[in-house]
Fold:
Amino acid sequence: MKENKAILLLLLTSLIWGLAFVAQSVSSESVGTFTFNSIRMLIGAVVLLPFALPLISKHGKDPAYWRKAVKGGVLCGICLGAASVTQQIGVSLSGAGKGGFITSLYIIIVPFMSAILGERIRKTIWISAAAAVVGMYLLSIGEGFSISSGDLWLILCAFLFALHIIVIDRTGRDTDGIVLSMLQFLTAGVLASIGMFFEKPEAASLMEAWLPILYAGVFSCGIAYTLQVIGQRWVRPSRAAFILSLESVWAAVGGMLLLSERLSVKEALGCALVFAAVLLAQLGPQESET
Structure:
């Protein structure tokens, strides 16, 4: 596959992920956070099952492989489940556009977490962090220097997604990506089902939210992840991360076009600064600097 075609796959991935913020916002009006995430994660696992079956058959008699796969899948599932739940709460309170931009901060948080683990980070990351802080101030803090509860949930979500990325990097090196993804969706879905039990969803509410739940499960979890796996085989990691970060743009566009959300001038400037910080974090040399 040529790089240009792989880039198109990654662009489609970012579009699917960005519009998923709209699905989250719409579904929050009918079903609870745990219900939405439990069903969509389990749908994602089912969607990936046909792709995972050949790999499962290939490694069926390799206990060492399965120890690593199950350990990685469970750890990633716990992180993904926690991140998805906090994200859903944040999006329901702050909106799809805002949710997409704040969540995108994980691209900046990841290098800082890596630094804690002993890796050196580039100077441009510090500049990105400063720009992101200013952008977050303009985007999230309203009159009287207050910050909404939804924004706090989304900031926590960004940290959890960053942790999820770190865990994948540490546990997914010796595991097939599709198998790892299926196991993490299964883990996240089962854990969220515990919370769904307390929410006691009604059939009527599920019928109202069936379309956004189906979109989030089939497209956001299943298809988009598969496109990401295929596309990243042909695109350099830094460039791929930059393309995927465009999900924040699609989230804002989707919020405006589909949900009639509007950003103030201050919030729009904040979005621009956050997005610029995300882009800057992905540019520059690959080598670490002091």
